[in-house]
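Exercise 7. Predict the joint structure of the components listed below.
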Amino acid sequence: MALEIFGDRWSLLIVRDVMVRGYRTFQEFLQSGEGIASNILAERLRRLRAAGILSAERAAGDGRKICYQLTQKGIDLAPAVLEIFLWSAMYEPTAAPSAVVDRMAQHREQILQEVRRRWAANDPTPVLPRFGDAR
Amino acid sequence: MALEIFGDRWSLLIVRDVMVRGYRTFQEFLQSGEGIASNILAERLRRLRAAGILSAERAAGDGRKICYQLTQKGIDLAPAVLEIFLWSAMYEPTAAPSAVVDRMAQHREQILQEVRRRWAANDPTPVLPRFGDAR
DNA sequence: TGGGTCACTTGCATTACGCAATCTATTTTG
DNA sequence: CAAAATAGATTGCGTAATGCAAGTGACCCA
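Solution:
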Protein backbone atom coordinates (compact mmCIF):
# COMPACT_ATOMS: atom_id res chain seq x y z
CA MET A 1 0.00 0.00 0.00
CA ALA A 2 0.95 3.59 -0.34
CA LEU A 3 2.36 3.75 3.14
CA GLU A 4 5.69 5.11 2.03
CA ILE A 5 3.67 8.27 1.38
CA PHE A 6 1.00 8.07 4.06
CA GLY A 7 2.89 6.17 6.66
CA ASP A 8 3.02 9.11 8.99
CA ARG A 9 0.75 11.14 11.14
CA TRP A 10 0.30 14.21 8.96
CA SER A 11 0.23 13.53 5.24
CA LEU A 12 -3.31 12.22 5.00
CA LEU A 13 -4.51 14.98 7.29
CA ILE A 14 -3.08 17.56 4.91
CA VAL A 15 -4.74 15.85 1.96
CA ARG A 16 -8.05 15.82 3.79
CA ASP A 17 -7.74 19.48 4.72
CA VAL A 18 -7.14 20.57 1.17
CA MET A 19 -9.80 18.17 -0.10
CA VAL A 20 -12.75 18.84 2.16
CA ARG A 21 -11.89 21.93 4.17
CA GLY A 22 -10.63 23.98 1.28
CA TYR A 23 -7.28 24.78 2.83
CA ARG A 24 -4.75 26.17 0.39
CA THR A 25 -1.90 27.92 2.20
CA PHE A 26 0.86 27.10 4.64
CA GLN A 27 -0.75 29.19 7.35
CA GLU A 28 -4.09 27.49 7.01
CA PHE A 29 -2.51 24.07 7.45
CA LEU A 30 -0.39 25.33 10.31
CA GLN A 31 -3.33 26.81 12.18
CA SER A 32 -5.73 23.98 11.49
CA GLY A 33 -5.63 22.97 15.11
CA GLU A 34 -3.94 19.62 14.71
CA GLY A 35 -0.65 21.06 15.91
CA ILE A 36 1.79 20.19 13.18
CA ALA A 37 5.20 21.84 13.48
CA SER A 38 6.19 24.21 10.71
CA ASN A 39 9.29 22.30 9.69
CA ILE A 40 7.35 19.07 9.47
CA LEU A 41 4.60 20.76 7.49
CA ALA A 42 7.12 22.12 5.02
CA GLU A 43 8.67 18.70 4.65
CA ARG A 44 5.31 16.98 4.15
CA LEU A 45 4.18 19.49 1.56
CA ARG A 46 7.43 18.92 -0.30
CA ARG A 47 6.94 15.18 -0.12
CA LEU A 48 3.34 15.32 -1.29
CA ARG A 49 4.41 17.46 -4.22
CA ALA A 50 7.22 15.03 -5.01
CA ALA A 51 4.68 12.19 -4.94
CA GLY A 52 2.49 14.08 -7.42
CA ILE A 53 -0.40 14.44 -5.02
CA LEU A 54 -0.22 18.18 -4.52
CA SER A 55 0.73 20.96 -6.89
CA ALA A 56 1.83 24.39 -5.81
CA GLU A 57 1.91 27.83 -7.36
CA ARG A 58 2.23 31.38 -6.17
CA ALA A 59 -1.09 32.90 -5.32
CA ALA A 60 -2.34 35.42 -7.82
CA GLY A 61 -2.57 38.77 -6.05
CA ASP A 62 -0.25 37.97 -3.15
CA GLY A 63 3.21 36.88 -4.17
CA ARG A 64 4.06 35.67 -0.69
CA LYS A 65 1.38 33.04 -0.57
CA ILE A 66 1.69 29.68 -2.20
CA CYS A 67 -1.50 28.01 -3.25
CA TYR A 68 -1.52 24.25 -2.85
CA GLN A 69 -3.97 22.13 -4.80
CA LEU A 70 -4.70 18.48 -5.33
CA THR A 71 -3.62 16.88 -8.56
CA GLN A 72 -5.75 14.22 -10.23
CA LYS A 73 -3.75 11.65 -8.30
CA GLY A 74 -4.56 13.58 -5.15
CA ILE A 75 -8.29 13.93 -5.69
CA ASP A 76 -8.41 10.22 -6.48
CA LEU A 77 -7.71 9.68 -2.79
CA ALA A 78 -11.21 10.95 -2.01
CA PRO A 79 -12.80 7.51 -1.63
CA ALA A 80 -10.08 6.40 0.77
CA VAL A 81 -10.30 9.60 2.78
CA LEU A 82 -14.08 9.27 2.96
CA GLU A 83 -13.95 5.69 4.17
CA ILE A 84 -11.40 6.51 6.83
CA PHE A 85 -13.55 9.43 7.93
CA LEU A 86 -16.64 7.25 8.15
CA TRP A 87 -14.83 4.59 10.14
CA SER A 88 -13.42 7.23 12.41
CA ALA A 89 -16.80 8.83 12.94
CA MET A 90 -18.33 5.47 13.70
CA TYR A 91 -15.86 4.65 16.46
CA GLU A 92 -14.66 7.95 17.84
CA PRO A 93 -17.30 9.56 19.98
CA THR A 94 -16.02 13.11 19.60
CA ALA A 95 -16.56 13.29 15.85
CA ALA A 96 -19.61 14.51 13.93
CA PRO A 97 -23.19 13.79 15.04
CA SER A 98 -24.15 10.25 14.14
CA ALA A 99 -27.22 11.30 12.20
CA VAL A 100 -24.98 13.27 9.85
CA VAL A 101 -22.53 10.40 9.58
CA ASP A 102 -25.26 7.88 8.85
CA ARG A 103 -26.58 10.05 6.09
CA MET A 104 -23.09 10.40 4.66
CA ALA A 105 -22.56 6.66 4.74
CA GLN A 106 -25.73 6.18 2.74
CA HIS A 107 -24.75 8.71 0.08
CA ARG A 108 -21.10 7.98 -0.51
CA GLU A 109 -21.18 8.45 -4.27
CA GLN A 110 -23.07 11.68 -4.00
CA ILE A 111 -20.50 13.07 -1.57
CA LEU A 112 -17.63 11.99 -3.78
CA GLN A 113 -19.23 13.66 -6.75
CA GLU A 114 -19.55 16.88 -4.82
CA VAL A 115 -15.93 16.73 -3.68
CA ARG A 116 -14.80 16.12 -7.24
CA ARG A 117 -16.99 18.89 -8.57
CA ARG A 118 -15.51 21.41 -6.16
CA TRP A 119 -12.05 20.26 -7.07
CA ALA A 120 -12.72 20.64 -10.80
CA ALA A 121 -14.29 24.05 -10.23
CA ASN A 122 -11.46 25.04 -7.89
CA ASP A 123 -14.09 25.85 -5.28
CA PRO A 124 -12.58 26.00 -1.79
CA THR A 125 -15.89 25.91 0.08
CA PRO A 126 -15.62 23.31 2.83
CA VAL A 127 -17.63 20.16 2.18
CA LEU A 128 -18.02 19.61 5.90
CA PRO A 129 -18.42 21.93 8.84
CA ARG A 130 -15.88 21.22 11.55
CA PHE A 131 -17.87 19.59 14.39
CA GLY A 132 -15.40 20.34 17.15
CA ASP A 133 -12.80 18.29 15.40
CA ALA A 134 -13.52 15.31 13.24
CA ARG A 135 -9.99 14.07 13.38
CA MET B 1 -9.16 10.98 11.48
CA ALA B 2 -7.86 7.88 13.11
CA LEU B 3 -4.27 8.81 12.54
CA GLU B 4 -3.32 8.42 16.15
CA ILE B 5 -3.75 4.73 15.42
CA PHE B 6 -2.71 4.52 11.76
CA GLY B 7 -0.29 7.39 11.68
CA ASP B 8 2.64 5.11 11.15
CA ARG B 9 4.10 2.88 8.55
CA TRP B 10 3.02 -0.49 9.87
CA SER B 11 -0.36 -0.55 11.57
CA LEU B 12 -2.51 -0.52 8.46
CA LEU B 13 -0.23 -3.04 6.81
CA ILE B 14 -0.81 -5.40 9.72
CA VAL B 15 -4.55 -4.90 9.50
CA ARG B 16 -4.47 -5.60 5.79
CA ASP B 17 -2.40 -8.73 6.28
CA VAL B 18 -4.79 -10.21 8.79
CA MET B 19 -7.77 -9.05 6.74
CA VAL B 20 -6.93 -10.22 3.24
CA ARG B 21 -3.90 -12.44 3.54
CA GLY B 22 -5.15 -14.43 6.48
CA TYR B 23 -2.13 -13.84 8.67
CA ARG B 24 -2.65 -14.78 12.28
CA THR B 25 0.65 -15.14 14.12
CA PHE B 26 3.66 -13.05 15.05
CA GLN B 27 5.91 -15.05 12.74
CA GLU B 28 3.64 -14.60 9.76
CA PHE B 29 3.63 -10.84 10.19
CA LEU B 30 7.36 -10.81 10.77
CA GLN B 31 8.11 -12.83 7.64
CA SER B 32 5.60 -11.08 5.42
CA GLY B 33 8.41 -9.49 3.47
CA GLU B 34 7.74 -5.89 4.44
CA GLY B 35 10.62 -5.95 6.90
CA ILE B 36 9.09 -4.84 10.16
CA ALA B 37 11.34 -5.23 13.20
CA SER B 38 10.19 -7.60 15.92
CA ASN B 39 10.08 -5.00 18.67
CA ILE B 40 8.04 -2.66 16.50
CA LEU B 41 5.71 -5.47 15.52
CA ALA B 42 5.12 -6.37 19.16
CA GLU B 43 4.43 -2.74 19.97
CA ARG B 44 2.01 -2.32 17.07
CA LEU B 45 0.12 -5.49 17.92
CA ARG B 46 -0.22 -4.23 21.47
CA ARG B 47 -1.44 -0.87 20.26
CA LEU B 48 -3.94 -2.39 17.85
CA ARG B 49 -5.28 -4.56 20.66
CA ALA B 50 -5.49 -1.54 22.93
CA ALA B 51 -7.42 0.28 20.22
CA GLY B 52 -9.87 -2.61 20.00
CA ILE B 53 -8.98 -3.45 16.42
CA LEU B 54 -7.32 -6.78 17.04
CA SER B 55 -8.03 -9.47 19.57
CA ALA B 56 -5.55 -12.12 20.62
CA GLU B 57 -5.75 -15.57 22.14
CA ARG B 58 -3.49 -18.53 22.51
CA ALA B 59 -3.72 -20.87 19.58
CA ALA B 60 -5.56 -24.10 20.25
CA GLY B 61 -3.10 -26.94 19.78
CA ASP B 62 0.10 -24.92 20.16
CA GLY B 63 0.29 -22.92 23.36
CA ARG B 64 3.25 -20.90 22.14
CA LYS B 65 1.39 -19.34 19.28
CA ILE B 66 -0.92 -16.41 19.70
CA CYS B 67 -3.72 -16.09 17.23
CA TYR B 68 -4.57 -12.52 16.28
CA GLN B 69 -7.94 -11.70 14.80
CA LEU B 70 -9.86 -8.64 13.74
CA THR B 71 -12.61 -7.40 15.97
CA GLN B 72 -15.80 -5.92 14.52
CA LYS B 73 -14.11 -2.54 14.73
CA GLY B 74 -11.19 -4.01 12.83
CA ILE B 75 -13.18 -5.64 10.03
CA ASP B 76 -15.05 -2.37 9.61
CA LEU B 77 -11.81 -0.97 8.23
CA ALA B 78 -12.26 -3.14 5.15
CA PRO B 79 -13.73 -0.38 2.95
CA ALA B 80 -10.88 1.98 3.82
CA VAL B 81 -8.26 -0.69 3.22
CA LEU B 82 -9.86 -1.57 -0.11
CA GLU B 83 -9.93 2.03 -1.30
CA ILE B 84 -6.32 2.58 -0.34
CA PHE B 85 -5.40 -0.61 -2.14
CA LEU B 86 -7.26 0.48 -5.28
CA TRP B 87 -5.65 3.90 -5.26
CA SER B 88 -2.28 2.34 -4.74
CA ALA B 89 -2.78 -0.13 -7.54
CA MET B 90 -3.90 2.66 -9.84
CA TYR B 91 -0.75 4.71 -9.32
CA GLU B 92 1.98 2.28 -8.38
CA PRO B 93 3.16 0.31 -11.39
CA THR B 94 4.50 -2.65 -9.41
CA ALA B 95 1.17 -3.69 -7.93
CA ALA B 96 -1.38 -6.16 -9.27
CA PRO B 97 -2.23 -6.46 -13.00
CA SER B 98 -4.53 -3.65 -14.04
CA ALA B 99 -7.17 -5.97 -15.43
CA VAL B 100 -7.54 -7.51 -11.98
CA VAL B 101 -7.61 -4.10 -10.36
CA ASP B 102 -10.22 -2.78 -12.76
CA ARG B 103 -12.41 -5.73 -12.03
CA MET B 104 -12.00 -5.18 -8.32
CA ALA B 105 -12.89 -1.52 -8.64
CA GLN B 106 -16.11 -2.49 -10.38
CA HIS B 107 -17.10 -4.99 -7.73
CA ARG B 108 -16.25 -3.25 -4.50
CA GLU B 109 -19.31 -4.40 -2.58
CA GLN B 110 -18.87 -7.96 -3.69
CA ILE B 111 -15.28 -8.00 -2.49
CA LEU B 112 -16.22 -6.47 0.84
CA GLN B 113 -18.91 -9.07 1.31
CA GLU B 114 -16.41 -11.81 0.66
CA VAL B 115 -13.92 -10.31 3.12
CA ARG B 116 -16.63 -10.04 5.76
CA ARG B 117 -17.83 -13.55 5.11
CA ARG B 118 -14.35 -14.97 5.62
CA TRP B 119 -13.98 -12.96 8.77
CA ALA B 120 -17.28 -14.20 10.17
CA ALA B 121 -16.43 -17.77 9.23
CA ASN B 122 -12.90 -17.37 10.61
CA ASP B 123 -11.60 -18.49 7.23
CA PRO B 124 -7.95 -17.52 6.76
CA THR B 125 -7.86 -18.16 3.01
CA PRO B 126 -6.23 -15.15 1.35
CA VAL B 127 -8.61 -12.98 -0.63
CA LEU B 128 -5.84 -11.90 -2.93
CA PRO B 129 -2.78 -13.64 -4.31
CA ARG B 130 0.41 -11.68 -3.65
CA PHE B 131 1.39 -10.27 -7.09
CA GLY B 132 5.02 -9.68 -6.23
CA ASP B 133 4.01 -7.26 -3.55
CA ALA B 134 0.96 -5.05 -3.66
CA ARG B 135 2.27 -2.74 -0.98
C1' DT C 1 10.32 53.37 4.69
C1' DG C 2 8.94 50.68 8.67
C1' DG C 3 6.22 47.14 10.36
C1' DG C 4 3.76 43.11 9.52
C1' DT C 5 2.80 38.74 6.94
C1' DC C 6 4.07 34.53 4.63
C1' DA C 7 6.59 30.45 3.66
C1' DC C 8 9.88 28.35 5.13
C1' DT C 9 14.70 27.08 7.67
C1' DT C 10 17.82 26.23 11.56
C1' DG C 11 19.44 24.51 16.06
C1' DC C 12 18.64 21.55 19.54
C1' DA C 13 16.35 18.28 22.70
C1' DT C 14 13.26 14.34 22.68
C1' DT C 15 11.23 10.45 20.81
C1' DA C 16 10.64 6.69 17.51
C1' DC C 17 12.72 3.29 14.72
C1' DG C 18 15.81 -0.53 12.84
C1' DC C 19 18.81 -4.23 14.01
C1' DA C 20 20.90 -7.88 16.48
C1' DA C 21 21.08 -10.38 20.52
C1' DT C 22 18.67 -12.20 24.35
C1' DC C 23 14.87 -13.99 27.36
C1' DT C 24 10.87 -16.94 28.85
C1' DA C 25 7.52 -20.25 27.91
C1' DT C 26 6.24 -24.03 25.32
C1' DT C 27 6.83 -27.81 22.17
C1' DT C 28 9.29 -31.23 19.79
C1' DT C 29 13.08 -34.48 19.38
C1' DG C 30 16.43 -37.99 20.68
C1' DC D 1 13.14 -37.03 30.53
C1' DA D 2 16.80 -33.97 28.94
C1' DA D 3 18.20 -31.18 25.02
C1' DA D 4 17.26 -28.65 21.11
C1' DA D 5 14.01 -25.93 18.65
C1' DT D 6 10.23 -22.63 18.15
C1' DA D 7 7.17 -18.69 19.30
C1' DG D 8 6.37 -14.27 21.11
C1' DA D 9 8.42 -10.65 23.00
C1' DT D 10 12.14 -7.56 25.32
C1' DT D 11 16.64 -5.14 25.68
C1' DG D 12 20.61 -2.35 24.26
C1' DC D 13 22.30 0.68 21.15
C1' DG D 14 23.02 3.56 17.11
C1' DT D 15 20.44 6.31 13.68
C1' DA D 16 16.58 8.81 11.91
C1' DA D 17 12.34 11.39 12.57
C1' DT D 18 9.80 14.70 15.25
C1' DG D 19 8.56 18.77 18.18
C1' DC D 20 9.58 23.40 19.66
C1' DA D 21 11.34 28.03 19.55
C1' DA D 22 13.68 31.23 17.14
C1' DG D 23 15.28 33.17 12.91
C1' DT D 24 15.45 34.29 7.63
C1' DG D 25 14.34 36.40 3.28
C1' DA D 26 10.73 37.74 0.14
C1' DC D 27 6.73 40.41 -0.23
C1' DC D 28 2.72 43.57 0.99
C1' DC D 29 0.58 47.64 3.03
C1' DA D 30 0.21 52.25 5.25
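Discussion. Chain A has one domain: 3-120.
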